[in-house]
Design a protein that fits this description.
Elements lengths: L9 H9 L9 H8 L10 H17 L2 H8 L3 H10 L1 H28 L3 H10 L13 H18 L13 H13 L5
Helix pairs in contact: 2-3, 3-4, 3-6, 5-6, 6-7, 8-9
Length: about 190
């Protein structure tokens, strides 16, 4: 897809005119060479072996397991069984999965050159862990202690010691404080 001639970044036009990455797809023969899967000639169910090959050959084009299974007429439990019981298929699927991920990256880069595409980024985050947001999992023990102390203070101020209706002592503040102290004890000081 070329950009309009309104003076927008001519170098992008050259890239797009040279290759439209999103439409490039290998033929089934090229995919067979890529994944290297060969139906087991000794298998009892030859039809299943052919369906495995069809899956692998179509997966790159369809880009999702669900769509590929629909194209070849196989249900998801069968696909999962193939992965669990056939090492050759599982290995070939892994190769194809990586090829699909690489294709998605290429499309993301091409689309990123033209502009932002948030939907594609969400797909990439699901497909490839390197695109996922990273959370800070380590905290300074002093910070943890300050947070726990602030929570305990807030609890003591806001949780009543007794039920407002029957006036029975609930001991909630004491129980919650003990629980927070136990949880925070895992952090080294």
């Amino acid at each position: 897809m070329a950009l309009s001639d309104n003076g927008a970044q001519p170098q992008i036009k050259k890239i797009e005119a040279k290759k439209d990455i999103s439409s490039q797809q290998p033929t089934a023969r090229k995919m067979t060479v890529l994944h290297g899967f060969k139906p087991d000639s000794k298998a009892k169910d030859k039809k299943q072996e052919i369906l495995k090959l069809k899956f692998l050959d179509n997966y790159f084009d369809e880009m999702t397991v669900t769509h590929t299974l629909a194209v070849i007429g196989v249900d998801h439990p069968t696909f999962e069984r193939w992965k669990d019981t056939d090492r050759a298929f599982s290995k070939a699927y892994s190769v194809c999965y990586n090829a699909v991920t690489d294709r998605m990256k290429r499309v993301a880069i091409a689309r990123g050159i033209r502009g932002s595409d948030n939907l594609l980024m969400f797909v990439m985050k699901q497909q490839d862990p390197s695109f996922r947001d990273r959370m800070l999992t380590e905290m300074d023990p002093k910070v943890v202690e300050n947070i726990v102390n602030a929570l305990v203070l807030a609890l003591r101020k806001n949780i009543p010691d007794s039920c407002p209706h029957c006036k029975n002592n609930l001991h909630l503040t004491e129980k919650v404080t003990r629980m927070l102290a136990t949880l925070s004890s895992g952090f080294e000081r």
